[in-house]
Sequence to fold (440 residues):
Amino acid sequence: MVNTVSCSHMFSGISEESYSKMMTCFHSVPKRFSAGETICFYEPKKRTVGIIEKGRAVVVKTFYSGSQTILEQLSDGSIFGEVFYFHANTDGISVIAASDCTVRFIDYGNIMTSCHNACEHHSQLIQNLFSIISCKAAELSEHIDVLSHRTIREKLMAYFQIQCSKNSSPKFKLPFSLSALADYISVDRSAMMREIKKLKEEGYIDIKQKEVTLLKEYIQ
Amino acid sequence: MVNTVSCSHMFSGISEESYSKMMTCFHSVPKRFSAGETICFYEPKKRTVGIIEKGRAVVVKTFYSGSQTILEQLSDGSIFGEVFYFHANTDGISVIAASDCTVRFIDYGNIMTSCHNACEHHSQLIQNLFSIISCKAAELSEHIDVLSHRTIREKLMAYFQIQCSKNSSPKFKLPFSLSALADYISVDRSAMMREIKKLKEEGYIDIKQKEVTLLKEYIQ
DNA sequence: TATAATTTGTTGCTTATGCAACAGAATTAT
DNA sequence: ATAATTCTGTTGCATAAGCAACAAATTATA
Fold:
């Protein structure tokens, strides 16, 4: 399942100048990684926040079987770390450079504790961190709302309705493939396709490419 | 569904003295409510943190039909507010006094912005808030782990295994009724009962009263 | 451009699961 | 102590949904 990360703005409202000052204050030095290199592994108690200053990377889960799933896609300005990953077990989770990249590591404690130096926008940084975590929690909550429905039909409609209401329109663009959608709502793909077909036939929805339109209100 | 709140320690590590100082600094005055009174309604953009200083209260969702569900149970030291409720819609959510109680309201902004006065433990407070929110997010994430399984059997076993691993024991005590469990894993109760019966017969689990024991490892 | 890999669309078969409906146990309220 | 409510346990029935397997369409990669 690819987690759409729409809520990373750790340094919004913070000037370039303040940013550099902070990095000095946090004793954070940029590190370079080549494409394919492992940037880090997630560990249970580690509380390091990573920032992709330049380049692309992925957070992947590697299973015992050897198969992998991309949990998150990271690019310029993205942050990562066990602090933003709320699962108890961090087994097999690592961050891999997808291109050459420059990465910063900051100790979580340094962010939380107010510094004695002149970090003028430190409290802004903390507020940003809060909104990032709240936003992630809201995404989880939304996911639960969808998964809590009993049938494939209900799950689909719940998902569609949430997307439309976010978009304040009866239309929205699927952010991932239908296969990934089946994955997200945790149902068999073929069964989901069958249900989508029925929903189309009954005039509830219309799907053209990745464009979904809600035609009728669905009352459960 | 009753949400087990195990992660409220907003003022842990903060002395009585610091607490009073903070409250003055935050311009927060204690308010009294009689049993049955409505303490507040949740509103979309409101960012007020509430603290139950003394007494008991409940966060309830009232549906259009008039039926209600208790979302959370609050007691001495519990905190509440839209900041800790990650759903987009706050319709019909209110906090009701279950006994006579004393409640504080603090503006979320005041907590986030560092104060000029002598709030020595302000950064401790922020750290506590972070751990509360992270803990709630972890609970959501755990819930998703359970709901992501396809069959009732898998959902049950996932839930049981999580509880046991938390308890670091093959046994644990169900924190709610079987009906509530069916609610939590989002399946029909009678179908769940049928599956529990089978799991018992096949020697996977044993349930006596609210005591669940995992007998065999379940591989999905 | 050719080739591989992934995604989409479809179907038959089987069974797990939802639903309704009931009765007894256990809890809570009066 | 009695009544009322909630919880637990069970069953028959219909069907939704999982699984496997395939081909065509689309997208990615060499």
In short: Residues 151-153, 187-188, 190-192, 194-195 of chain A lie near DNA strand D (CB under 10 Å from a C1'). The radius of gyration of chain A is 20 Å. Chain A touches chain B at residues 83, 86-88, 112-114, 122-123, 126-127, 129-130, 133-134, 136-138, 140-145, 147-150, 162, 165-166, 186-188 (CB under 8 Å). Chain A has a mean pLDDT of 87.
